[in-house]
Amino acid sequence: MFKRISLIIVLLLGILAVLFLLPAAASGGITLNDNSSDYLILPDREMDPSNLPPPPPFAGEVNRENFELVPENFSFDKDGILMAYHEGKWHYNPLSIANYTLSLYGAYYNGDKSALEPLLAHANWLYDNSVPKNSNGRSFYVNEYTVAYPLFKLEPGFYSGLASAATLCVFQCVGFLTGDEKWTERAEAFLPPFDIPLAEGGLRYELTDSGIKDAVWYEEYVNPEMPAHVLNGHIYTVFFLEWFGIHAENELALKLADDGLKGLEYALPQYDELGFSVYDLHNRIVNCKYHQGAHVIQLNRLYEKTGTDIFLEYAERWGANDCVGLLKNEDGKLVNISWFPRKWAILGTAGLGALLFLIIAIFIFKKYSGSGRFLRKNSSK
Predict the structure, then answer these.
(1) Which residue from 155, 151, 152, 146 is spatially nearest to 89, judged by alpha carbons?
(2) Does 54 have pLDDT greater than 60?
(3) How far is CA 114 from the centre of its chain?
Protein backbone atom coordinates (compact mmCIF):
# COMPACT_ATOMS: atom_id res chain seq x y z
CA MET A 1 0.00 0.00 0.00
CA PHE A 2 2.82 2.42 0.87
CA LYS A 3 4.46 1.87 -2.52
CA ARG A 4 1.19 2.54 -4.33
CA ILE A 5 0.71 5.78 -2.41
CA SER A 6 4.29 6.76 -3.23
CA LEU A 7 3.65 6.10 -6.92
CA ILE A 8 0.52 8.24 -6.88
CA ILE A 9 2.35 11.07 -5.12
CA VAL A 10 5.19 11.03 -7.65
CA LEU A 11 2.70 11.10 -10.53
CA LEU A 12 0.86 14.03 -8.98
CA LEU A 13 4.14 15.90 -8.49
CA GLY A 14 4.95 15.39 -12.17
CA ILE A 15 1.59 16.84 -13.19
CA LEU A 16 2.03 19.79 -10.83
CA ALA A 17 5.48 20.45 -12.28
CA VAL A 18 3.99 20.77 -15.77
CA LEU A 19 1.20 23.04 -14.53
CA PHE A 20 3.73 25.22 -12.70
CA LEU A 21 6.12 25.59 -15.62
CA LEU A 22 3.49 26.52 -18.18
CA PRO A 23 2.44 29.82 -16.58
CA ALA A 24 6.07 30.77 -16.09
CA ALA A 25 6.71 30.28 -19.81
CA ALA A 26 3.53 32.11 -20.74
CA SER A 27 4.52 35.15 -18.72
CA GLY A 28 7.96 35.29 -20.31
CA GLY A 29 9.82 34.12 -17.23
CA ILE A 30 12.05 36.47 -15.24
CA THR A 31 12.72 39.84 -16.86
CA LEU A 32 15.76 42.02 -16.26
CA ASN A 33 15.42 45.74 -15.62
CA ASP A 34 11.78 45.66 -16.72
CA ASN A 35 9.47 48.47 -15.64
CA SER A 36 7.54 48.50 -18.88
CA SER A 37 4.23 46.95 -17.88
CA ASP A 38 3.11 49.61 -15.42
CA TYR A 39 5.32 52.67 -15.57
CA LEU A 40 2.81 54.40 -17.88
CA ILE A 41 -0.56 54.98 -16.18
CA LEU A 42 -3.06 56.60 -18.52
CA PRO A 43 -5.68 58.94 -17.04
CA ASP A 44 -9.41 58.76 -17.74
CA ARG A 45 -10.72 61.03 -20.47
CA GLU A 46 -13.92 62.57 -19.08
CA MET A 47 -13.52 66.23 -20.08
CA ASP A 48 -13.60 67.55 -23.64
CA PRO A 49 -12.65 71.24 -23.49
CA SER A 50 -13.39 72.78 -26.85
CA ASN A 51 -10.91 75.63 -26.37
CA LEU A 52 -7.82 73.46 -25.82
CA PRO A 53 -5.94 71.08 -28.13
CA PRO A 54 -5.42 67.51 -26.90
CA PRO A 55 -2.26 66.83 -24.90
CA PRO A 56 0.94 66.02 -26.79
CA PRO A 57 1.40 62.27 -27.34
CA PHE A 58 2.97 60.02 -24.70
CA ALA A 59 4.12 62.58 -22.11
CA GLY A 60 0.75 64.33 -22.17
CA GLU A 61 -0.97 60.98 -21.61
CA VAL A 62 1.04 59.96 -18.55
CA ASN A 63 -0.59 60.26 -15.13
CA ARG A 64 1.05 62.95 -12.98
CA GLU A 65 1.41 60.37 -10.20
CA ASN A 66 4.19 58.72 -12.19
CA PHE A 67 6.29 61.70 -11.06
CA GLU A 68 4.65 62.64 -7.77
CA LEU A 69 4.51 59.19 -6.19
CA VAL A 70 7.93 57.80 -7.13
CA PRO A 71 10.19 59.17 -4.35
CA GLU A 72 13.18 57.06 -5.35
CA ASN A 73 13.32 58.85 -8.73
CA PHE A 74 11.71 62.25 -8.16
CA SER A 75 11.32 64.82 -5.38
CA PHE A 76 10.32 68.48 -5.15
CA ASP A 77 12.31 71.48 -3.96
CA LYS A 78 11.01 74.13 -1.51
CA ASP A 79 9.24 75.89 -4.41
CA GLY A 80 7.53 72.71 -5.55
CA ILE A 81 9.71 72.22 -8.64
CA LEU A 82 10.46 68.65 -9.69
CA MET A 83 13.95 67.26 -9.15
CA ALA A 84 15.34 63.99 -10.51
CA TYR A 85 17.84 61.61 -8.93
CA HIS A 86 20.92 60.85 -11.03
CA GLU A 87 24.32 59.41 -10.15
CA GLY A 88 23.85 59.91 -6.41
CA LYS A 89 22.50 63.46 -6.46
CA TRP A 90 19.29 65.42 -7.03
CA HIS A 91 19.19 67.86 -9.91
CA TYR A 92 16.83 69.76 -12.19
CA ASN A 93 16.39 67.56 -15.26
CA PRO A 94 14.94 69.61 -18.16
CA LEU A 95 13.36 66.56 -19.82
CA SER A 96 11.77 65.30 -16.61
CA ILE A 97 10.41 68.77 -15.83
CA ALA A 98 9.02 69.16 -19.35
CA ASN A 99 7.43 65.71 -19.30
CA TYR A 100 5.92 66.34 -15.87
CA THR A 101 4.52 69.65 -17.09
CA LEU A 102 2.95 67.95 -20.10
CA SER A 103 1.41 65.34 -17.80
CA LEU A 104 -0.06 68.19 -15.77
CA TYR A 105 -1.50 69.70 -18.93
CA GLY A 106 -3.02 66.32 -19.72
CA ALA A 107 -4.50 66.19 -16.21
CA TYR A 108 -5.93 69.70 -16.54
CA TYR A 109 -7.31 68.85 -19.97
CA ASN A 110 -9.12 65.94 -18.36
CA GLY A 111 -10.71 68.02 -15.63
CA ASP A 112 -8.12 68.10 -12.84
CA LYS A 113 -8.18 71.78 -11.87
CA SER A 114 -5.48 71.23 -9.24
CA ALA A 115 -2.96 70.63 -12.04
CA LEU A 116 -3.03 74.24 -13.25
CA GLU A 117 -0.89 75.83 -10.53
CA PRO A 118 2.03 73.35 -10.70
CA LEU A 119 1.72 73.35 -14.49
CA LEU A 120 2.35 77.09 -14.68
CA ALA A 121 5.09 76.92 -12.02
CA HIS A 122 7.06 74.33 -13.97
CA ALA A 123 6.48 76.10 -17.29
CA ASN A 124 7.88 79.26 -15.71
CA TRP A 125 10.93 77.32 -14.50
CA LEU A 126 11.59 76.10 -18.05
CA TYR A 127 11.08 79.62 -19.40
CA ASP A 128 13.32 81.31 -16.80
CA ASN A 129 16.07 78.71 -17.24
CA SER A 130 16.14 78.85 -21.02
CA VAL A 131 19.63 79.58 -22.31
CA PRO A 132 20.12 81.67 -25.49
CA LYS A 133 22.36 80.22 -28.23
CA ASN A 134 23.49 81.33 -31.65
CA SER A 135 24.69 79.40 -34.67
CA ASN A 136 25.84 81.30 -37.75
CA GLY A 137 23.43 84.13 -37.04
CA ARG A 138 20.46 81.94 -36.10
CA SER A 139 19.35 82.50 -32.52
CA PHE A 140 17.55 79.90 -30.44
CA TYR A 141 17.02 78.68 -26.88
CA VAL A 142 17.75 75.43 -25.03
CA ASN A 143 17.71 74.18 -21.44
CA GLU A 144 21.08 72.92 -20.24
CA TYR A 145 21.78 70.03 -17.89
CA THR A 146 23.78 70.66 -14.72
CA VAL A 147 25.10 67.10 -14.36
CA ALA A 148 27.40 64.87 -16.40
CA TYR A 149 26.26 61.81 -18.36
CA PRO A 150 29.38 59.62 -18.58
CA LEU A 151 27.63 56.98 -20.71
CA PHE A 152 27.47 59.51 -23.53
CA LYS A 153 30.66 61.37 -22.52
CA LEU A 154 28.75 64.53 -21.67
CA GLU A 155 29.82 67.19 -19.18
CA PRO A 156 27.49 69.66 -17.42
CA GLY A 157 26.15 72.24 -19.84
CA PHE A 158 24.98 69.85 -22.55
CA TYR A 159 21.45 70.00 -23.97
CA SER A 160 18.98 67.55 -25.39
CA GLY A 161 16.91 67.35 -28.55
CA LEU A 162 14.18 65.43 -26.79
CA ALA A 163 14.04 67.89 -23.90
CA SER A 164 13.86 70.79 -26.37
CA ALA A 165 11.01 69.15 -28.32
CA ALA A 166 9.05 68.47 -25.12
CA THR A 167 9.70 72.02 -23.88
CA LEU A 168 8.44 73.73 -27.03
CA CYS A 169 5.24 71.69 -26.61
CA VAL A 170 5.00 72.87 -23.00
CA PHE A 171 5.25 76.52 -24.06
CA GLN A 172 2.66 76.06 -26.79
CA CYS A 173 0.26 74.43 -24.31
CA VAL A 174 0.67 77.31 -21.84
CA GLY A 175 0.17 79.73 -24.70
CA PHE A 176 -3.19 78.10 -25.38
CA LEU A 177 -4.07 78.25 -21.67
CA THR A 178 -3.09 81.86 -21.03
CA GLY A 179 -3.36 83.58 -24.39
CA ASP A 180 -0.01 85.24 -23.65
CA GLU A 181 2.13 85.45 -26.80
CA LYS A 182 5.37 85.26 -24.84
CA TRP A 183 4.85 81.51 -24.54
CA THR A 184 4.26 80.84 -28.24
CA GLU A 185 7.18 83.09 -29.13
CA ARG A 186 9.48 81.14 -26.81
CA ALA A 187 8.14 77.87 -28.25
CA GLU A 188 9.12 78.99 -31.73
CA ALA A 189 12.56 80.03 -30.39
CA PHE A 190 13.18 76.40 -29.39
CA LEU A 191 12.55 75.15 -32.94
CA PRO A 192 15.60 76.41 -35.00
CA PRO A 193 18.22 73.93 -33.62
CA PHE A 194 16.24 71.06 -35.17
CA ASP A 195 17.15 72.64 -38.51
CA ILE A 196 20.83 73.22 -37.59
CA PRO A 197 23.49 70.50 -38.04
CA LEU A 198 24.96 68.89 -34.95
CA ALA A 199 28.45 70.09 -35.86
CA GLU A 200 27.19 73.70 -35.82
CA GLY A 201 25.60 73.53 -32.39
CA GLY A 202 22.22 72.20 -33.46
CA LEU A 203 20.32 68.98 -32.87
CA ARG A 204 20.19 67.63 -36.42
CA TYR A 205 22.43 64.78 -37.61
CA GLU A 206 22.29 64.35 -41.38
CA LEU A 207 22.17 60.68 -42.45
CA THR A 208 24.12 61.30 -45.62
CA ASP A 209 24.90 57.60 -46.11
CA SER A 210 21.22 56.91 -46.63
CA GLY A 211 21.12 58.63 -50.00
CA ILE A 212 17.71 60.00 -48.95
CA LYS A 213 17.20 63.74 -49.13
CA ASP A 214 16.64 65.31 -45.70
CA ALA A 215 16.86 62.01 -43.80
CA VAL A 216 18.02 63.07 -40.33
CA TRP A 217 18.37 61.95 -36.73
CA TYR A 218 17.58 64.19 -33.77
CA GLU A 219 20.04 63.66 -30.95
CA GLU A 220 18.64 63.22 -27.45
CA TYR A 221 22.15 63.60 -25.97
CA VAL A 222 24.04 66.21 -27.93
CA ASN A 223 27.69 65.30 -28.36
CA PRO A 224 29.06 66.18 -31.82
CA GLU A 225 32.12 64.02 -31.14
CA MET A 226 30.05 60.94 -30.31
CA PRO A 227 26.50 61.01 -31.72
CA ALA A 228 24.73 58.13 -29.99
CA HIS A 229 21.47 58.11 -32.03
CA VAL A 230 19.11 57.17 -29.18
CA LEU A 231 16.08 55.40 -30.66
CA ASN A 232 13.25 56.26 -28.28
CA GLY A 233 14.43 59.87 -27.98
CA HIS A 234 14.35 60.39 -31.73
CA ILE A 235 10.87 58.89 -32.08
CA TYR A 236 9.42 60.95 -29.22
CA THR A 237 10.98 64.04 -30.79
CA VAL A 238 9.28 63.33 -34.11
CA PHE A 239 5.92 63.00 -32.36
CA PHE A 240 6.43 66.27 -30.46
CA LEU A 241 7.49 68.14 -33.59
CA GLU A 242 4.45 66.91 -35.47
CA TRP A 243 2.10 67.85 -32.60
CA PHE A 244 3.62 71.32 -32.46
CA GLY A 245 3.45 71.70 -36.24
CA ILE A 246 -0.24 70.82 -36.30
CA HIS A 247 -1.44 72.87 -33.34
CA ALA A 248 0.87 75.86 -33.83
CA GLU A 249 0.25 75.71 -37.60
CA ASN A 250 4.00 75.70 -38.12
CA GLU A 251 5.09 74.36 -41.51
CA LEU A 252 8.77 74.14 -40.54
CA ALA A 253 7.95 71.86 -37.60
CA LEU A 254 5.90 69.59 -39.86
CA LYS A 255 8.78 69.36 -42.33
CA LEU A 256 11.24 68.62 -39.52
CA ALA A 257 8.97 65.82 -38.28
CA ASP A 258 8.86 64.39 -41.80
CA ASP A 259 12.66 64.57 -42.06
CA GLY A 260 12.90 62.61 -38.82
CA LEU A 261 10.54 59.94 -40.15
CA LYS A 262 12.73 59.52 -43.23
CA GLY A 263 15.75 59.02 -41.00
CA LEU A 264 13.91 56.48 -38.86
CA GLU A 265 12.77 54.41 -41.85
CA TYR A 266 16.36 54.20 -43.05
CA ALA A 267 18.11 53.54 -39.73
CA LEU A 268 15.58 51.31 -37.94
CA PRO A 269 17.12 47.95 -39.02
CA GLN A 270 20.41 48.99 -37.37
CA TYR A 271 18.73 48.84 -33.95
CA ASP A 272 17.95 45.13 -34.19
CA GLU A 273 20.07 42.76 -32.10
CA LEU A 274 18.95 39.13 -32.28
CA GLY A 275 15.31 40.16 -32.35
CA PHE A 276 15.67 42.77 -29.61
CA SER A 277 15.97 46.55 -29.89
CA VAL A 278 19.04 48.42 -28.66
CA TYR A 279 18.75 51.74 -26.83
CA ASP A 280 21.28 53.56 -29.02
CA LEU A 281 23.84 52.80 -31.73
CA HIS A 282 26.95 53.74 -29.74
CA ASN A 283 26.58 51.58 -26.64
CA ARG A 284 24.14 49.04 -28.17
CA ILE A 285 22.57 48.18 -24.83
CA VAL A 286 19.29 46.26 -24.71
CA ASN A 287 17.26 47.91 -21.96
CA CYS A 288 14.01 46.06 -21.25
CA LYS A 289 12.30 49.22 -20.05
CA TYR A 290 12.73 50.79 -23.47
CA HIS A 291 12.55 47.61 -25.56
CA GLN A 292 9.13 46.67 -24.20
CA GLY A 293 7.88 49.91 -22.71
CA ALA A 294 8.83 52.36 -25.46
CA HIS A 295 10.12 51.06 -28.80
CA VAL A 296 7.35 48.57 -29.58
CA ILE A 297 4.63 50.97 -28.43
CA GLN A 298 6.13 53.85 -30.43
CA LEU A 299 6.42 51.80 -33.63
CA ASN A 300 2.87 50.51 -33.36
CA ARG A 301 1.60 54.05 -33.04
CA LEU A 302 3.75 55.20 -35.93
CA TYR A 303 2.31 52.44 -38.09
CA GLU A 304 -1.23 53.47 -37.14
CA LYS A 305 -0.39 57.05 -38.10
CA THR A 306 1.61 56.48 -41.29
CA GLY A 307 0.84 52.98 -42.53
CA THR A 308 4.57 52.48 -43.19
CA ASP A 309 5.27 48.74 -43.27
CA ILE A 310 8.74 48.81 -41.70
CA PHE A 311 7.31 50.21 -38.47
CA LEU A 312 4.88 47.31 -38.18
CA GLU A 313 7.58 44.81 -39.18
CA TYR A 314 9.87 45.77 -36.30
CA ALA A 315 7.04 46.32 -33.83
CA GLU A 316 6.00 42.70 -34.39
CA ARG A 317 9.57 41.35 -34.46
CA TRP A 318 10.58 43.06 -31.23
CA GLY A 319 7.20 42.58 -29.62
CA ALA A 320 7.54 38.81 -30.02
CA ASN A 321 10.61 38.74 -27.76
CA ASP A 322 10.43 39.41 -24.05
CA CYS A 323 13.55 40.35 -22.11
CA VAL A 324 13.85 36.97 -20.42
CA GLY A 325 17.63 36.77 -20.25
CA LEU A 326 20.22 38.95 -21.91
CA LEU A 327 23.97 38.47 -21.53
CA LYS A 328 27.13 39.53 -23.30
CA ASN A 329 29.86 37.17 -24.39
CA GLU A 330 33.60 37.71 -23.99
CA ASP A 331 33.69 39.92 -27.08
CA GLY A 332 31.08 42.22 -25.56
CA LYS A 333 28.41 41.19 -28.05
CA LEU A 334 24.87 40.50 -26.98
CA VAL A 335 23.91 36.89 -26.40
CA ASN A 336 20.20 36.19 -26.22
CA ILE A 337 19.52 33.17 -24.04
CA SER A 338 15.79 33.42 -24.70
CA TRP A 339 15.90 33.33 -28.46
CA PHE A 340 12.49 31.90 -29.19
CA PRO A 341 9.17 33.75 -29.14
CA ARG A 342 6.78 33.15 -26.26
CA LYS A 343 4.60 30.57 -28.03
CA TRP A 344 7.63 28.34 -28.58
CA ALA A 345 8.63 28.82 -24.95
CA ILE A 346 5.20 27.55 -23.92
CA LEU A 347 5.35 24.53 -26.23
CA GLY A 348 8.95 23.75 -25.33
CA THR A 349 8.36 23.95 -21.60
CA ALA A 350 5.23 21.83 -21.88
CA GLY A 351 7.16 19.25 -23.90
CA LEU A 352 9.97 19.11 -21.35
CA GLY A 353 7.46 18.76 -18.54
CA ALA A 354 5.65 15.95 -20.33
CA LEU A 355 8.95 14.18 -21.04
CA LEU A 356 9.97 14.49 -17.37
CA PHE A 357 6.61 13.10 -16.31
CA LEU A 358 6.97 10.16 -18.72
CA ILE A 359 10.49 9.33 -17.49
CA ILE A 360 9.37 9.35 -13.86
CA ALA A 361 6.35 7.20 -14.65
CA ILE A 362 8.46 4.63 -16.55
CA PHE A 363 11.04 4.54 -13.75
CA ILE A 364 8.41 3.94 -11.09
CA PHE A 365 6.59 1.36 -13.17
CA LYS A 366 9.79 -0.61 -13.84
CA LYS A 367 10.89 -0.44 -10.23
CA TYR A 368 7.70 -1.92 -8.86
CA SER A 369 6.70 -4.19 -11.72
CA GLY A 370 10.05 -5.58 -12.89
CA SER A 371 9.82 -8.58 -10.57
CA GLY A 372 6.15 -9.02 -11.27
CA ARG A 373 5.26 -8.32 -7.65
CA PHE A 374 3.15 -5.27 -8.49
CA LEU A 375 1.18 -7.16 -11.15
CA ARG A 376 0.77 -10.27 -9.00
CA LYS A 377 -0.56 -8.28 -6.12
CA ASN A 378 -3.07 -6.60 -8.34
CA SER A 379 -4.11 -9.83 -10.09
CA SER A 380 -4.63 -11.68 -6.83
CA LYS A 381 -7.37 -9.29 -5.73
Answers:
(1) 146
(2) yes
(3) 28
